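Batch queue: ligand-bound targets. Current item pairs a single chain with nicotinamide-adenine-dinucleotide. No template structures supplied; prediction is de novo from sequence plus SMILES. Inputs echoed for audit trail.
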Amino acid sequence: MGTINGQTAVITGAGSGIGQAVARRLAKHGCPVVLADWNEDGLNDTAASISGPTLVKKLDVRDRQGQMALAAEVKEWAPSPIGLVFNNAGVTVLQGVADASPEDDQWVWDVNFHGVTNGVTAFLPILLEQGSGVIANTSSVFGLVGFPHQSAYCASKFAVRGYTEALRQELKGTGVRAVVVHPGGVKTNIVANARFRSDFRGDHQDVDSAAREFATIARTTPDRAAKIIHEGIEKGRSRIRIGPDAVFLDLLVRIAPTKYFDIIERLEGVVRRGS
Ligand SMILES: NC(=O)c1ccc[n+]([C@@H]2O[C@H](COP(=O)([O-])OP(=O)(O)OC[C@H]3O[C@@H](n4cnc5c(N)ncnc54)[C@H](O)[C@@H]3O)[C@@H](O)[C@H]2O)c1
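Prediction returned. Tokens below.
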């Protein structure tokens, strides 16, 4: 199993947060990087901070034809074999099931799940032809546990996990690997960019207030997340958990598969009383 350092890396959601940090880190490790996002300002920020070869592409990951066109362009452009396709762009909505907007649920599903499947469909043939490369798909700790008022997000992230684990079995013997990434709380714009209807405890009336709280809870920086992802891929991991919260919840759900949320609430109570 070779290194991805120096090989071309394709990254969606490269205009912010985890995708931006992974792009910067891999560029420092000699990777030509393909930066894709629908946010042009974010893309330009990322590109401006990278000195190596970059291909910058405004892309909505829901657009399958756009992803196919990008793959064809990358095949022509790539100065080295494609070492990584990181299907990472994602969004969320905060809303309860009973008052959910179906349009917002659909938006989350289309970006988080079909954004991933479109990226795999577009790039897998190139990787199979090469006989090498890693497809890393971003799930979440919410692809391991269900969390109230995050039903569509959880559904999309459980789906990314199942899809990627199935793909992993299909890729045996091809030289191509499938990796699922489960971040815990990472200090990014994910909540600031969310759609908001209601939060679970009713503590927040709008997305700004929810984002402020998220910034105090999320423990891991995007740079740290990028280091864990990069090192996990280099070590040949198939499943990469980011942060102590992700490791803890992954364990908890196995010990208490139906009661984990009761335990989380009790622990939160202890932490709140202690602070
Ligand atoms: N931050 C966390 O705590 C956390 C935890 C678990 C999982 N994740 C996942 O990590 C991934 C990266 O998120 P982040 O935390 O860096 O958030 P972020 O909001 O900082 O970055 C997400 C990026 O995806 C882009 N994007 C959104 N919809 C898109 C679309 N349709 N087409 C193209 N680009 C699109 C956004 O413009 C943004 O640049 C997401 O899949 C998210 O669900 C994040």
